[in-house]
């Protein structure tokens, strides 16, 4: 348990430091200088707001009126939007909601990769090194404005579930793998395809 707690604290510190000033200024700083980033802010805020107020209307986004189902015209970002619900509920600030989803996604990427490597090697330092390299690699951080690509935690999550299933095949572990792959598909279409 100490290993998990230590990894979680290190992950939080690294997310805060390596995305500075995002975490301390969650509601006012956005690392986005393109239309993709602005679209992500709208998308995350739409999903978070709609999950709070009228979940049955999640696909009927307020774009391309009078058409319905318009959220499906692009990435749904349902997982990122769900991650943003607490920040959006507390602040009603789309930037805070998006930044919270980014921070949570990076933290989860670190923790899932750490857990995978720790499970395979039983080495706490190896897990930390792999998780740091994976979570904060230039490719991932260069896509801060593409919220769906930041949902990279689903890849090690899929492999964790797969290794558990291979280690001891049970229906429950098969369901866990299916749930992990489904989360990947809802988080990012690309990652869902890769996971499948």
Task: Explain the overall architecture.
The protein is an all-alpha fold and 196 residues long. 67% of the residues lie in helices and 0% in strands. It has helices at residues 2-18, 35-53, 78-91, 94-121, 124-135, 138-141, 154-167, 171-187, 189-195. Helix 1 crosses helix 4. It is globular. The mean pLDDT is 95.
Overview features:
mainly alpha; globular; 196 residues
How many β-strand stretches?
A: 0
Cα shape: globular
Biggest pleated sheet: none
Structural class: mainly alpha
Q: What is the helix content?
A: 55-70%
Order of helical and strand elements: HHHHHHHHH
What is the percentage of strand-forming residues? under 5%
What integer value in Å does the Rg equal? Answer: 17 Å
Overall average residue pLDDT: 95
User: Which spans have pLDDT < 50 for at least 5 consecutive residues?
Assistant: none
């Amino acid at each position: 348990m100490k290993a998990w707690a230590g990894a979680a604290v290190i992950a939080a510190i690294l997310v805060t430091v390596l995305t500075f000033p995002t975490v301390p200024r969650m509601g006012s700083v956005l690392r986005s200088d393109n239309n993709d980033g602005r679209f992500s802010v709208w998308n995350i805020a739409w999903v978070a707001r709609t999950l709070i107020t009228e979940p049955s209307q999640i696909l009927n986004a307020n774009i391309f009126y009078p058409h319905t189902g318009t959220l499906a015209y692009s990435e749904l970002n349902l997982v990122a939007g769900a991650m943003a619900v607490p920040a959006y509920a507390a602040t009603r600030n789309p930037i805070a909601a998006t930044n919270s989803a980014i921070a949570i996604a990076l933290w989860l990427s670190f923790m899932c990769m750490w857990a995978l490597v720790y499970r395979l090697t039983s080495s706490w330092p190896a897990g930390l090194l792999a998780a740091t390299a994976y979570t904060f690699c230039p490719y991932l951080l260069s896509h801060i404005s593409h919220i769906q690509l930041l949902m990279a935690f689903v890849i090690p999550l899929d492999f964790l579930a797969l290794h558990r299933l291979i280690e001891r095949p049970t229906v429950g572990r098969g369901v866990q793998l299916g749930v992990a792959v489904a989360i990947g598909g809802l988080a990012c279409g690309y990652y869902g395809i890769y996971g499948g």
